[in-house]
Amino acid sequence: MARQPILEFWYEFASTYSYLAAMRVEAAAAEAGVAVRWRPFLVGPLFASQGWTTSPFNLYPAKGKNMWRDVEREAARLGLPPLTRPAQFPQNSLSAVRVAVYGQDQDWLVPFSKAVFTASFAEGRSIAEPAAVVEILDSLGLDGTQTVRAAAAEANKTKLRVSVEEARSRGIYGAPTFLADDGELFWGNDRLDLALAWATGDRPKGLR
Amino acid sequence: MARQPILEFWYEFASTYSYLAAMRVEAAAAEAGVAVRWRPFLVGPLFASQGWTTSPFNLYPAKGKNMWRDVEREAARLGLPPLTRPAQFPQNSLSAVRVAVYGQDQDWLVPFSKAVFTASFAEGRSIAEPAAVVEILDSLGLDGTQTVRAAAAEANKTKLRVSVEEARSRGIYGAPTFLADDGELFWGNDRLDLALAWATGDRPKGLR
C-alpha cells in the first residue's frame, strides 16, 4: 500500500485562524489523501522574540478590527457557529496546550483540540483555568483531573518547550502553520489547500 | 441596464501582494461582473503610525523569508514570470504613486500600474528614481517627462496625501485592500475572490 503523504499542522489554542483551520483540516486532508499530524504549540514565545508583548491584533487596532470581521466571515463560509469573542483575547492557552502536548499522537488529541477551540471561539468560554480544561476532558469521557495533573509534570513541560524551539528552528513565526515533509512552510488558514496539494506532490509549474 | 457593482482596489507599488493582486484583478473582476476602481496609495505613513520604520517583512525575518517563498509560489500558480526581488525592498514608490494618483481614473492608470509592478517584481528593476518612471511612461506611448513633472505639482502631492488619509479613515492598514460599496474591507490578495463575491451581493449565510 502506498504511503500517505504527511502534513504537520502547527496550531495555537489562542489563535482565531488556528480555530478555523482546526475545524476544516480533517475533511480537507481526507479529500486530498493526506495524513495530518497535529502539533500543538505556543506562539507567545515566538511573538516575544519579535518584541510583541501581546497579539499583533491587539497591538495594531485597525488590523485587529478587520481580523475579527474576517474570522466572522470565514466562520460563516465554513458553516461554523457564529463567532464569539472570548472575554480575554488572546486567552492564556498554557493549561490546554500542555494537555495537548501530553496527548500528542493519542486518539483523543484531535477531539480534545477541537473541543478547546469550540469552547473558546464558538461558545466564548474561558479556557485559561486548569478547571476549564478538566471540564473539557471530562466531557470527552477522559479523566480530566488526572490528565491535567499529568500534563503539569516537569517532563511534559519540557516537551512543550522543545516543541516551541522546534517550531522556531523550522522557521515558524505564527499560527496556524503547515509544514510539508520536505520542510516547505505554509502560514495561515488560507494556505491549507495549497499545503495539502504540495504534500501530494502537486506543485505550481515553473517554481524553483 | 443594471448598474455594475464596484470594488475599490487599494494598492502600493512596493508591495509584493499588491503586485499579485494587480496582475489578476481585471480577469477576476470581469468574470464576476464587477467594476474595479484602482486606488494607488502609500502604506508607509500607515506603517509609521504603527511604529514600523520599514516593511514588517524586513522587521520580522522569519515572516519575511516565508513571504518571498509564498509570493514565488503564488506567482507560479498565477502563471506570472518567476519572481525577482528588487535590490532594495521595499522600493521607494513615491514617484510612481504620484504619477498613478495623477492618472486616477485615466485610461492609462491600469497599464501604467501593471508596468510598474512588472518592472519591479518580474524584472527586478528599480522604480525609485523619477527617470525609471519616465521610462515606463514612455514605453506606454505617454509623455513620461511631462507626466512626471505634472505629478510633482503641489496640488497632486496634496491629492496623494488626501488618499492616504482616506485610506486610514476607512480602516486600511496594509496593501492590497479591497473595499466594497458598503465599506466592507478585505485585506490581502487572498481575499480578492471573497471581496468580488461580496460586491455582487453573494455573502456567507448566517453572517451578521
From TrEMBL, chains A, B:
Name of the protein this chain belongs to: 2-hydroxychromene-2-carboxylate isomerase
Top enzyme class: isomerase
Organism domain of life: Bacteria
An MF annotation (GO) of this entry: isomerase activity
Catalytic activity reported: 2-hydroxychromene-2-carboxylate = (3E)-4-(2-hydroxyphenyl)-2-oxobut-3-enoate
Similarity-based family: Belongs to the GST superfamily. NadH family.
SUPFAM superfamilies: Thioredoxin-like
Lineage of source species: Bacteria, Pseudomonadati, Pseudomonadota, Alphaproteobacteria, Hyphomicrobiales
Pfam families: DSBA
CDD domains associated with the record: DsbA_HCCA_Iso (cd03022)
Domain DSBA-like thioredoxin: 7-194
Entry's EC annotation: 5.99.1.4
Keywords, sorted A to Z: Isomerase
